[in-house]
Amino acid sequence: MSRRGTDFAGLSVAIVTPFKDGGKVDVDTLKQQIEFQIAAGTNCLVPCGTTGESPTLTHPEHERVISETIQAVAGRCKVMAGTGSNSTNEAISLSEWAAKEGADATLQVAPYYNKPSQEGFYQHFKAISESVDVPHCIYNIPGRTGKNIEPETIARIAECKNMVMVKEATGSLDQASQVLSLTDLTLLSGDDSLTLPLLSVGGEGVVSVVGNLVPQDMIALVNAFRDGNVAEAQRLHMQLFPLCRDLLGINSNPIPVKAAMRELGRDSGELRLPMVQLTAAELDFLRKTLGTYGLLKEGVAV
């Protein structure tokens, strides 16, 4: 089956939003992180997702981070702007801004908290697709939104124009397989540790958190599998697995990844409430994980 959205295959990185001076958006550090990703060969950057602390960004900040990212990238990789909302009108408004600024696509999280019916999901995504003429990625993460977009609903949404991808973060290979069998959407893993399993059933890549730290390793994993070198892909999966598990397991995203970036000298590590810093025990555990991976040696970034 020929799939839509394959231009976004490979590694997309859900980049953090750096803050400094008590919570101001740190554009200079954002630009440094963008250059780091482009140098690594990352295919697509995803600003203002969960990892970018979008729930705590004001609307002007949200728009600014998207605009600054697009301008800094300057066409050297793709930009998939996080513009989803539990308000359809708000999602359309943010998506219109991203499209106007030159985003290559938008990431549309399932409406959260208000828990719409399956028909409500369909109408939400349909309205976005008809209002904003850029490619869109459906983001299904029931662990955060409170409700699953069922495969049959995703199949209906896939019939809407401009809906070309799905970021699959249900943790279910059965769901992913159903979506792939029912649609021609490009499926991207929304869980770093499940990237290889999802590639094995037909996924095309990952929207990654751990890619903030080691994008080259995630690119190598995807490329190895794509090239038919399954043994190498499995080796990289096992190498990456503890880092993926701990970044997303010891506390809520993006608390651990921002702490890791601070340890590596690449971010202030500032968070916005209600996110708070790791406990001393959690930070010690994270440092051990970074050390085992080879990113830290005696507390110093390698």
From TrEMBL:
Matching SMART domains: DHDPS
Cellular location(s): Cytoplasm
Entry annotation: catalytic residues: Y139, K167
EC number: 4.3.3.7
SUPFAM superfamilies recorded: Aldolase
One term of GO molecular function: 4-hydroxy-tetrahydrodipicolinate synthase activity
Principal place of residence: cytoplasm
Pfam family, one: DHDPS
GO cellular component terms attached to this protein's record: cytosol
Keyword Transmembrane: no
Catalytic reaction list: L-aspartate 4-semialdehyde + pyruvate = (2S,4S)-4-hydroxy-2,3,4,5-tetrahydrodipicolinate + H2O + H(+)
Residues the UniProt record annotates as site (Part of a proton relay during catalysis): T50, Y113
List of residues binding pyruvate: T51, V207
The keyword Amino-acid biosynthesis is assigned to this record: yes
Pathway: Amino-acid biosynthesis; L-lysine biosynthesis via DAP pathway; (S)-tetrahydrodipicolinate from L-aspartate: step 3/4
GO terms for biological process, alphabetical: diaminopimelate biosynthetic process; lysine biosynthetic process via diaminopimelate
InterPro entries named in the record: Aldolase_TIM, DapA, DapA-like
CDD domains documented for this protein: DHDPS (cd00950)
Keyword annotations: Amino-acid biosynthesis, Cytoplasm, Diaminopimelate biosynthesis, Lyase, Lysine biosynthesis, Schiff base
Role summary: Catalyzes the condensation of (S)-aspartate-beta-semialdehyde [(S)-ASA] and pyruvate to 4-hydroxy-tetrahydrodipicolinate (HTPA).
The family this protein is said to belong to: Belongs to the DapA family.
PANTHER family according to UniProt: 4-HYDROXY-2-OXOGLUTARATE ALDOLASE, MITOCHONDRIAL, DIHYDRODIPICOLINATE SYNTHASE
HAMAP family: DapA
NCBIfam families found in the cross-reference section: dapA
Assembly mode: Homotetramer; dimer of dimers.
Protein known as: 4-hydroxy-tetrahydrodipicolinate synthase
Gene: dapA_2
